[in-house]
Amino acid sequence: MRVLSAAAFVALWVALGAASAHGVHGHGLHHALGPYPVAQTDFGIAGHPRKLSRTVLVDMREDLRFAPDTVRVKQGDTLRFVLHNSDRVRHEWVLGDRAEIERQAAARRANAAALPEQVHALHVDPGQTEEVVWTFNRVGTFQFACVTPGHREGGMVGSVTVMPAAPR
Question: What pTM does this model have?
Answer without folding.
Answer: 0.78
